[in-house]
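Is it possible to get an amino acid sequence alongside its tokenized fold?
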Amino acid sequence: MPPGQQDARHAHDPKRLRLFETTATATFLHRPNRFVVTCLLDGRALPAYLPNPGRLRELLLPGRKLYLAKNNGTGAFTHTVVAVERDGRPVMLHTHMANRVAEWLLRNGAVPGCEDAIIVRREAPAGRSRFDFLIEQGGARCFMEVKSCTLFEGPTAMFPDAVTSRGRRHLLELADMSKNGMAGKVIIIINSPGVRWFLPDYHTDPAFADAMLSTRGKIGFTPLAVDWNDDLTMSSPPRMVTIPWDVVEREARDSGSYILLLRFDTDHRITVGRLGTVFFPAGYYCYAGSAKQGLSKRIARHLRKRKNHHWHIDYLRNEADQVSALPIRSSDRLECNIAASLDQIADWSVPGFGCSDCSCDSHLFGMLNDPWINEEFIDLLQYFRIGRLRTRLERPRSPF
């Protein structure tokens, strides 16, 4: 067997799902756009197709192991990225495969609540949309939509990791059909076996989170944690994951903290209010801020260039070559904790910047390299968005 390839044993075992006959392993280098990655295969840089529009920032880091499937035909790419390794386990990235996973689980009676269901139709039309499956069980029919979840931290998973207006629309349409007696269900395939809790990613797509909250009594949500073997087969049954609705209701609000990312391509000297003239060397800057109310409006304000300066960050924002924002929605005030954590991984800080109302030394931190390729920064963001919820999720909660 050629080096780097996985064998095809169990390919026709009905008790074992195998999506790819063989795969090769490669090393991730970078991602020039949403649907293309550059990887190192057999010692040469190779562009490969990535069938996943998600951000995947916690997964696609330089040096990560990728699983590639060889393409048949004359397309632009010889290979497709199908999975990535995280914490020693493969994580399925090929979003189109989620439907095949769901179909295999349905046919094997492995979806809780749908053990005796039969598939009536794939890509079933209804109204303005098509849903992944129309199933029937006990004489009753149900439209089913399937989502693939790759965003997780420890025992907690979230979806989506990028805004999905289509996903939100599907929830609302399924809920609307329930008024006429047609059942609807959403299956979430979570590509990590250790996950215990699932929440909508209200940091990234609060509209989707609101849609989940508003439709939960009208349609069913079934998050399933699946386990992929090293050869990208799946044989063990999925595990039902809990949705902690009380935590979602408390946390998914338009308040919390944020990290503003700014890039300076050249050195700058900027007059910053009472701080006076400050030297800002070229590089990347992370600013920690918060808003008890109106977090979205606060972030939108920071992203616009302004003539009138109110906060220290306003002076900096107008000179930056690139600005983006990372909301961290929370019922807790985390701004100073985030600043302290950024201080631990930054190359330098700007004394007195953005901290006039607290005892911190600074809320602005500089980095020589892009934070998005810094695993420590990714871990920090993962912790404040997802990981810190674990303590709260592990507390006993009333079922009512």
Notes: DSSP finds nine helices and 24 strands in the chain. The first strand starts at residue 17 and ends at 18. Residues 1-12 have pLDDT under 50 and may be disordered. The domain at 96-251 is CATH 3.40.1350.60 (Trna Endonuclease; Chain: A, domain 1).
